[in-house]
């Protein structure tokens, strides 16, 4: 009887194995994804090479490529993507294109009319400096940091994001956390502590005013310049003022993880972990870990997903996993792996030559404004490739 029982168990095991497809190793997923990203990015670079002073942005509803000038906040993401891909493969053609498109942003180092100089310059010139050591990049980044610093208001303790209008006198958006990394670099490079002080003060003010008790974040907090008092807390791109706009949660997660890396201040790591808890434990986070465009979108589970938010979260979780112990470490890596597997699948990764030659499909830029909805987004591609590279370096190549 016992013999027949064991034989039965063995047969069940054989049947299960026969019908269970083994999961592709992450090393293969990462390598294939990077090859696909390189192929698409080279096609896009070749298409744009002869269009002067332009950078890729997205596609319209008919699949036509939409470009931008260097002043658009996303201008640094495509050259930054090319630099990451060059770092991975050492393909000299990638390096040539990365240099070409990076140089198209050069004049923005003197732009004092935007808070997005970190996105624009540090993702492009910052990666160029890190990977190639080209010394001329330093002056661009220092000048950009000086320009960004002019938007800091010491009474409020924040860098102004957008211009004032009838609704907002001194608006600060959570996205602005991402521009602090360039200031931290500039402080170390020049020895000028003011850059660091501005970055830390801005981060501290955001902790005080941007986050709710559950560590979800308001998208916009506007202040009264004369007193520093909060004027209003609301959203511009989320579903509602009280909702949790997915990419906003991602910006906060990434920003405070970065600030911990740069300062060693445990307050920032605690903040990042709290934000991660909100995201990863949210009942509306899908099983494949690609968030809906807003965690409180009214049409869940039929709401649009945002691949760009997933890419930012994955990149941040991979880095955060290096700063924490168990069980957080394993949880962060597992979620990032799930996100990367999903993004690397045909559901989100475009076929060769399709999708305007962008890498990922299904990004949501500004749904309430009916702008860049369910399309590729250049920043989604950038943080996706960054996440792939971080996984390869931090996890696979230990």
TrEMBL record:
Family according to the record: Belongs to the glycosyl hydrolase 88 family.
A molecular-function term among this protein's GO annotations: unsaturated chondroitin disaccharide hydrolase activity
Example of a GO biological process term: polysaccharide catabolic process
Record has Secreted as a keyword: no
Keywords (A to Z) from UniProt: Glycosidase, Hydrolase
Annotated protein name in UniProt: Unsaturated chondroitin disaccharide hydrolase
Gene, per the UniProt record: ugl_5
Enzyme class: hydrolase
Aminoacyl-tRNA synthetase as UniProt keyword: no
């Amino acid at each position: 009887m016992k013999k027949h029982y064991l034989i039965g168990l063995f047969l069940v095991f054989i049947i299960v194995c026969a019908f269970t497809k083994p999961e592709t190793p992450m090393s293969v997923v990462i390598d294939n994804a990077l090859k696909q990203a390189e192929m698409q990015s080279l096609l896009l670079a070749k298409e744009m090479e002869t269009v002067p002073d332009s950078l890729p942005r997205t596609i319209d509803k008919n699949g036509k490529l939409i470009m931008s000038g260097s002043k658009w906040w996303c201008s640094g993401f495509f050259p930054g993507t090319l630099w990451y891909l060059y770092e991975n493969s050492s393909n000299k053609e990638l390096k040539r294109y990365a240099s070409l498109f990076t140089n198209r942003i050069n004049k923005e180092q003197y732009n004092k009319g935007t808070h997005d100089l970190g996105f624009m310059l540090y993702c492009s010139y910052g990666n160029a400096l890190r990977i190639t050591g080209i010394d001329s990049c330093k002056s661009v980044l220092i000048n950009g940091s000086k320009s960004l610093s002019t938007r800091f208001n010491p009474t409020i303790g924040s860098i102004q994001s957008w211009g004032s209008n009838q609704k907002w006198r001194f608006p600060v958006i959570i996205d602005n956390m991402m521009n602090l990394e360039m200031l931290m670099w500039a402080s170390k490079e020049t020895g000028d502590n003011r850059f660091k002080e501005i970055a830390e003060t801005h981060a501290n003010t955001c902790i005080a005013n941007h986050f709710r008790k559950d560590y979800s974040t308001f998208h916009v907090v506007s202040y009264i310049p004369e007193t520093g008092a909060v004027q209003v807390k609301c959203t511009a791109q989320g579903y509602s003022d009280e909702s949790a706009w997915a990419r906003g949660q991602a910006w906060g997660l990434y920003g405070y993880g970065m600030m911990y890396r740069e300062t060693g201040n445990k307050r920032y790591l605690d903040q990042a972990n709290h934000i991660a808890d909100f995201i990863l434990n949210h009942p509306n986070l899908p099983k494949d870990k690609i968030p809906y465009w807003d965690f409180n979108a009214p049409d869940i589970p039929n709401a649009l997903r945002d691949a760009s938010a997933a890419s930012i979260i994955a990149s941040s979780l991979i880095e955060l996993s290096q700063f924490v112990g168990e069980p957080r470490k394993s949880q962060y890596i597992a979620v990032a792996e799930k996100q990367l597997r999903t993004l690397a699948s045909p559901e989100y990764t475009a076929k060769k030559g399709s999708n305007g030659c962008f890498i990922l499909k299904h990004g949501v830029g500004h749904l309430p404004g009916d702008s860049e909805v369910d399309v590729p987004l250049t920043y989604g591609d950038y943080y996706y490739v960054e996440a792939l590279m971080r996984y390869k370096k931090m996890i696979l190549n230990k």
